[in-house]
Amino acid sequence: MKRANLVWFFFLLFLSAPCLAADPISIKISLDRTEASMDDTIQMGIHVSGARTSDAPPVIHGLDVFRVAQGGSSSRVEIVNGTYRTGVEFTFFLTPSKTGTFQIGPAEVRIDGKVYKSDLQTIHVRQQDSGGNVQTKTVFLSASLSKDKVFAEEQPIYTLRLYLRRQATNISLQLPEPENLTFTQLTKPREYEGVSNGLQYRIIEIPYALTPFKEGRHRIDSARMNMTVSEPGRRSGRGLFDDSFFNGGLFSGGRPLSVSSNVLELQVEPLPLQGRPKSFSGLVGDFTIRAGIEPLRLKAGESATLTVRVEGRGNINRIPDMQMPEMKEIKVYADEPVLTPETDAAGIRGSKTMKWALVPEKEGSYTIPPLTVPFFDAEKGQYQRLETKPFHLTVLAGKENRSVKIPIGESATSGLSPVKQDVKEIGHDILPLHDSIRSLGLMQGGQNGQEGTFLPWIILIVPGFFYGSALAVLRIKKRSVRSVHAQKAKKAAGKAIRKCRLEASDAECLILTVRDYFNDRFGLEMAAITADDVISLLRDKGIPSDVALKLSSFLKQLESAVYTGHDQAGDQIGTEIAACIKQMEREIR
């Protein structure tokens, strides 16, 4: 009874709300901190008082040096001392891209056709925290090198470790792009538990082989990881009628976070000139060679196969294609070399297999000379030479070419040609052969040879007709159910690609185009789409992570352009989104 009375009280309170005094419309910006490092994510709130809705999302000035991610929105209604208060709040997450002091605002919100402006906020962004401070955080990223001094094309291991004390999803990585250095991922990310600075962490480790192509001192800038991290649940005391659907559920579970690794330096020494073989191909690492020939005894005109395999760890793409020397009385036919690369946690390894067919033309004894491959052993700091052992072929006299005749029957022994004999009838089949349905006697009529009943035709045709009709109906039904979605999905892709090319740089139109494409392609009914939605949806559909992350990155750029008041994004972003959609369609099919 008390609950029913309470419901009626609130219902009457709503009816009387227009009679209560209402607050004027005002806009305010809030930041969860005024100082931040390059690793921090700043939470920004746009608070609108006096209205529960806006005509469009807010436009915030001064965000050019920040990456902007939408965090959701919520509305509220409060009645305090007879005053009726309404409001809407928009949440954004800002990740700085440079250091300095920046002014954020004003934020502009359009309500009932009128634009309202907010106040200004100032924030100071400093460099990322020093190592000691970083390791006390709940999330941080570290980078390390197995060696900080190497020779040119020697491959040290560059390892990234993400330390987590909170749950993280939608993790993406941006590697540095130093000149004359390349990264090769060695294994899939490895996850394990570990301790750092006395604290327990979940660690995600990714190893890369780092290949330097030029001597000198190289700076390896910070790697960056973007993710969504969970936050402890927080209740807001704004009011009794807060819209909990938008304020919780979808958006309260996490916030975007970007972390950067430490900067590294690598000293690359040139390969020594002293002792360098003339045939040196640039092969650096640790290698072995194996060789064999089969058979060692053969007849003239037959072939033997020489197989040489060079394998080891290092820059295997530099293993040269060896050349067989010219040999008298032996023809040499080279096969296509086969390079087999492999990776493991210790680096890049692999092998190169080369084969030759050797055809001696005359009998005798032949020596196959050794083959050599020079390489630079980085651990020993000197050049080494791989060499096969010589092989000795014994060639016997070959058979003379003779035409061989195959004997047929007794004539082969008598030397006489076979005599053709007449065909004799030796018996009859058990049952006679029939070449017409009339032979069955079923189609014969009465005395005058008139045609009889068509029952046999009916027996033969009618079951097949009914079976074919039923099969056709089932196929048509199944095809109609599938074709509706297939045709809609196919049209959705073409429509989205055309719009992306037409609206090549209109940020808001491109966001709507991507949303409509996902709704039509996958049968969804989303009112809006975010970068995180794209990653989760595409991964569920089996789309490769690199495609999902690329499209997610484009959406983040578009969102940033919209929320900072720049209607136009990059000139080529529409074309790039269209290319992503094409690639997704190929993967789905």
Task: Please explain how this structure is put together.
Residues 234-252, 400-421 and 442-451 have low confidence and may be disordered. With 589 residues, the chain is of the alpha+beta class. The protein has 4 domains: 19-126, Immunoglobulin-like, CATH 2.60.40.10; 131-269, Immunoglobulins (Immunoglobulin-like), CATH 2.60.40.10; 285-396, Immunoglobulin-like, CATH 2.60.40; 477-588, no CATH class. The strands form 9 sheets. Strands 1, 2, 4, 6 and 7 form a 5-stranded mixed β-sheet that branches. Strands 12, 14, 16, 17 and 18 form a 5-stranded antiparallel β-sheet that branches. Strand 27 and strand 28 (347-360) form a beta hairpin. It is built from 9 helices and 32 strands. The longest helix is centred in the last third of the chain and has 48 residues, at 455-502.
Features:
589 residues; alpha+beta; Immunoglobulin-like; 4 domains; five-stranded mixed sheet; five-stranded antiparallel sheet; 9 helices; flat
How is this structure best summarized?
With 589 residues, this protein is of the alpha+beta class. The chain contains 9 helices and 32 strands. It is flat.
Q: What is the number of helical segments per DSSP (H or I, 4+ residues)?
A: 9
Question: Fraction of residues in helices?
Answer: 10-25%
Distance between the termini: 60 Å
CATH class of the largest domain: Mainly Beta
Number of domains: 4
Write down the overall mean pLDDT. Answer: 78
Poorly predicted regions are 234-252, 400-421, 442-451
**Rg, please?**
40 Å
Described by strand count, sense and barrel closure, the largest sheet is: 5 strands, mixed
Regarding quaternary structure, what we see is single chain
Estimate the global geometry from the Cα principal axes: flat
Count of DSSP strands: 32
Strand content: 35-45%
Q: At the fourth CATH level, what is the homologous superfamily of the largest domain?
A: Immunoglobulins
CATH topology name of the largest domain, in short, is Immunoglobulin-like
Q: Helix/strand/pairing class, anyone?
A: alpha+beta
Task: Name the CATH architecture of the largest domain.
Answer: Sandwich
